[in-house]
Amino acid sequence: MFVILVYDIGVKRVNKVLKTSRKYLNWVQNSVLEGDISETNFKKLKGELLMIIQPGDDSLIFYTFRSKNYSAREEYGLKKGGNENFL
Which residues have CB under 8 Å from 48's CB, separation 6+? Predict the structure, then answer.
């Protein structure tokens, strides 16, 4: 599956969330990661992140796609992340 992760995390936890997420996904820009991931690794990623965040203060949003074949991505301006995977 293809996943886009968007997060808004408190300053004390943001580096840990980014480091954990980069084990599974590719960093695109501030607070956004994306990539192909297996169901098993997706469950691991969610579990690890849910152990880090504070639900009353932090926010995670996962967009999941069965396939990226019918998607398109347009970029404008400064490119911040890697170019390993594109939506």
Answer: 20
